[in-house]
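Pair request: fold both.
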Amino acid sequence: MAIVATQLKRGQCISYNNELGIVTGTEHRTPGKGNALVMATIRSFKTGKTKDIRFASSDKVDIVQSERQKLEFSYQDQTGYHFMDTSTYDTVTFQEEFIEDSKDLLIDGLPVEVLFVDGKAVTIELPPNIELEVTESAPGVKGDTATAATKEATVQTGLRLQVPLFINPGDRIRVSTEDKKYVSRA
């Protein structure tokens, strides 16, 4: 199915330059001279890289049929990462290559959304922030707060990140799933 570039929306799967990707943002521009255009930010399923593509407002864009499925992380073992469909209780297993950067953010019961194109999983989306428990961190040095000082901490999944000095082992913190950085205390 093809649509006009001005109808592109965030979250749509498209085919461009013999590649499949997901639209992560669009901006409609009308320069002083010339025709209007649509700047679309697209993340490739093949490479995982994001690029900006310029479409004339009258260009046709091929939309790829996709399906989103809500799953819940169950556990990980030598065969892969196991997710459960909470409506049917079916288990779906993904290999480590598919999970990639998300593996050190997965905790039991974490809801995720998986995008399928032609029956094949192409991307996994986590919630914007997740709560994790700090398992290790060095003690903060008193009087070392003149600036926004940080220290390294390890959370329950093994992820190491920078946190403020007042965070101690046993504390629960919110971590951004986009950049894996400390957001706040939970």
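--- second member of the pair ---
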Amino acid sequence: MPLCFYNSLSRKKEIFKPIQNDKVGLYTCGPTVYDEAHIGNFRTFIFEDLLKRYLLFRGYNVFHVMNITDVDDKTINRSREEHKPLNVITKKYSDQFFKDLAWLKIIPANVYPRATEHIPGMIQMISQLLDKGYAYKNDDGSVYFNIGCDPDYGRLVRIKLSEQRVTERMDNDEYEKDEPQDFVLWKSKKKDDGDVYWDSPWGPGRPGWHIECSAMSIQYLGEHFDLHCGGVDNKFPHHENEIAQSLYLRGKPFVNFWLHSEYLLVEGRKMSKSMGNYYRITDLRDMGFSAENIRYQLLSGHYRTKIIFSSAKKYQADKVLHRLSDFKERVTQNELISNDALIFPNEFHQFCSALNDDLDTPRAFAVYFDWMKKVNKKMDRSEESPELLLETKNFIDAFENIFGLLPQMEIIPPEIISLAKLRKEARGKGDWAIADGLRNEIEKHGFVVEDTIKGYKIKKV
């Protein structure tokens, strides 16, 4: 089937076609760097990593932009609480975020624009919205977007403006109620802001959160691009406001596909520090979680469904990961035919069909694990033909490129593999002295051979 995604804007699955042939523009809402990102944040970031990996696997040239929100209400409040300059706070948590990304094997974005480095572009956009009559200046120097100018406001979360009472304008960057409100584009300087402000035609102040993403996405991806992602908590007001200001700025389509990942429940409940189920990546590392375990738990459920991340699932996830690693190790210990042909088993097409259907990872996993059992049974019966081994290796490589669930494996030199095969033949003939000699030779090179029910394994000492 063709590649389809569920578009949050249309609320239906649509065939994905890039604006420019094989080039894909992807914008993902990055962290607000006032604290360490938590496992709920990374549910979204790992979903976006899967999306990007699959697009790359299909041959698309993906240009990925992930913003860093380094000035907003939260960052300024943290700066004030800790009595440290804003840039000291945001650098600390930005650095930790990039460490977490690398450890979790998330493919880096092409660019990570920071809000504080793009203020002139935001001022320009606000000026244009004022000139077009879609924004207005308040007496204190703040500037607001007039949602009354947008009769379709609420298009993303299905708010009908004509049926709603527009409440007081909103100064906060984030608010919880799904109520239409004129939102701030430029915040005039307040006493609590300290030295965090920039000069503008309307007086000193700083941008609102929503204009930051519009300005940075348009600067790097153009006025009309393919994909914009985030968590469902970003739908309103953030993405709703992004759409409104961006559409009326240029009077043309803004983003073709909006993709949102659902909430993550932790230990069966909404994550909360008071409930003791608030996990940062550093916390999970201290608890003995591997990057692959976290990735597996977050990818095993469909991105549009609520899933539960649990410390109790760690053992079960590790068992699955060991099966994946053992399978790859068993296959790669066989001598593969020298052939670059990309042949795949029939199950591979079922696997791709599942991922083409709005990244249906549970179905893709089911196909892969069922196929893995079949191949293991064939190898138990010594039915591993050169063609079977090649198509198996190709499927394993594809699976790993898409999901990133296999730990880095030790590279076993070809000569060690050859010695192990000779030892296997000697054991089969009952030549135990020769087999023992080959085992000793392998150990001299820093490797050990372990005999199991399913065959031998080679490991580095």
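Observation on the second member. The mean pLDDT is 92.
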